[in-house]
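Why do we bother with holo predictions? Because pocket geometry can differ from the apo form. Keep that in mind while you read this record for S-adenosylmethionine.
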Amino acid sequence: MSSAGHLYLHTPFCGSRCGYCAFTVEVGVLDRRDAYTDALLAELAVEGERMGTLRTIYVGGGTPSLMGPERIARLLDALRPRCADDVEISMEANPETVDERSLAAYREAGITRVSLGVQSFQAGMLRVLDRQAGPEQAVAAVDAARGAGFESISVDLMFGVPGQTDELLDADLARALEMGVDHISWYELEIKPRTALERAGAALPDEDWAADAYERIVGSLEGAGYRWYETANFARPGHECRHSLGYWSADDYVGLGVGAVSTVNGRRWRNHAGVDAYIGTLSSGVPPTRSVEHLDEPTRRRERWMLALRRDEPMDMRWAGPPDHPEALERLVEGGLIDVDADHIALTRRGRFVQNAILRQLMEYA
Ligand SMILES: C[S@@+](CC[C@H](N)C(=O)[O-])C[C@H]1O[C@@H](n2cnc3c(N)ncnc32)[C@H](O)[C@@H]1O
Ligand code: SF4
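The structure, written out:
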C-alpha cells in the first residue's frame, strides 16, 4: 500500500463570486473561519494515516488569503512533522486581500510559493470577469510578494475572455513579461454551467481567434525563457509547480476540506460541499460526508494518458499502459503530431496544440 506525498487543503471563503467561477466557494460566511480551521485539523487527524512524508502542500480555494496568516500558521504547524525537508507549500492569493506585511507573515508561517489570481491586467477584462481587484492591485500584489521575500511567485491569467481583442491580449502579454514572475498559468476561459457568465449568455471569442491567441502566448513566453512544461503552465527553470507535476504524474494525493478530492490506491473520494455541514460532522469526530469511487485499471490507464500527455516530457508507456487504439500511433507519427520510440511517447510541438484531438484518437473516453 502506498501513501500520498501530496496534500491539498481547500479554503472555500470568497468575498464575492466571480462571474466565471464554479469552484466550491461560499460568500458571506467569514465568521466560520476559526471553526473551519478546527474542522480541517480534525479531518487531518482522521486521514493522517493515508499520508506519507509530504513533498508538496497546496492551499487552494476559494480565497486562501482570506484565512489570514494565523490560521494558515495553525494548519502548517500541525503539518510540519509530516513534511519533507524540502517541502513545497503553495498558496493561492487574491491581489486585493494581501499586502507586503501579510505576505511576509504567510512566508513566516511556511508558505514557499505564492500564486496570485491576476486573470488580466486590463481593467475592462477584469470587469467582465467580476473581479474585485483592479490592474494596479495586481501589480502591487506581485511587488508585495517580492518585497516579502518570496522566491517563487506565480500569476494566473486568462485568455478567451468575452471582448478580448488582439491588442488587449498583447497588453497582458507585455505586462506579464515585464513583471518577470517565476511561473505563469495561462488558462483559456471556460464558461461553466450555472455561472453568471453562462446565465448572461456571454459569447466566447471564436475558436480560430482562441487558437491563435494560445500560440501567441506560448511563443511569447517561450521566447522570454519560460518553459512550456504543461498545457497551460510556464515556468522559469526550477520554478515548475511540483504539486501540479504530482497530479500530472497521476501520483496519489489527499485533499482536505469541503469539496476536496483525494485519490489513494485506486480509491477516489470527494467531500460534499457545504461549510456548515463539514464543520458540524467533524466537530463530532466523524469524517465528512463524501462520495467514493473505485477506479478500475482501464480508468486509471486512461487517466494516466490524459494527465501525463499534458506535460512536455515523454511519457513511458510501460508505466502508463498501452493505448486503446495502438493502430492510431503510426498515423499520428506520420502526421507529425507525436514522436514514439520503443517505450516512450511525446507530443510534438504541433501536437501539443491539438492534444485533445490526439487523445481521442488513442483512447476511449466516456
Ligand atoms: C481555484 S481558482 C481561484 C483562485 C483565486 N481565488 C482567484 O480567484 O484568483 C484558480 C484559477 O483557476 C482559473 N479558473 C477559474 N475558473 C476558470 C474558468 N471558468 N475558466 C478558466 N480558468 C478558470 C483562474 O485563473 C483562477 O485563478
Ligand atoms: S475565481 Fe477565485 S475569488 Fe472568484 S469566486 Fe472563484 S475562487 Fe473566489
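The CA atoms of residues 9 and 256 lie 5 Å apart.
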